[in-house]
User: Which sequence fits this backbone?
């Protein structure tokens, strides 16, 4: 039985700050492009402060996700097999095909039992 961990509030706070930084960098980009249209400016890239804000938000978001994530769960065949019985493993109704084309394809074949 696994021990439940307390939720990591610091990690969630980091994710929230990263989200607002990401949103603000998008808004700043929109404002910058609107300004360039208004003054007929032809700048090829974004200002350095918007780029740094965007990269900081992505890095903080990655850190927040790592802090919030739980421990990995084991994926072992033995533990999965212990949960199931042998009858449930053999019963695979999705592989049963009752409406196949065998009757139409082999209708002219005479079987030995029918002779």
Assistant:
């Amino acid at each position: 039985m696994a021990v439940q961990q307390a939720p990591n509030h610091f990690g969630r706070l980091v994710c929230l700050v990263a989200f607002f930084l990401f949103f603000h960098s998008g808004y700043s980009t929109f404002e910058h492009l609107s300004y360039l249209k208004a003054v007929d400016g032809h700048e090829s890239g974004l200002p350095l402060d918007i780029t740094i804000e965007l990269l900081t938000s992505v890095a903080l978001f990655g850190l927040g996700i790592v802090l919030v994530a739980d421990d990995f769960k084991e994926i072992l065949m033995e533990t999965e097999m212990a949960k199931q019985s042998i009858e449930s493993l053999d019963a695979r109704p999705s592989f049963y095909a009752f409406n196949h084309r065998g009757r139409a394809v082999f209708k002219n074949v005479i079987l030995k039992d029918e002779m």
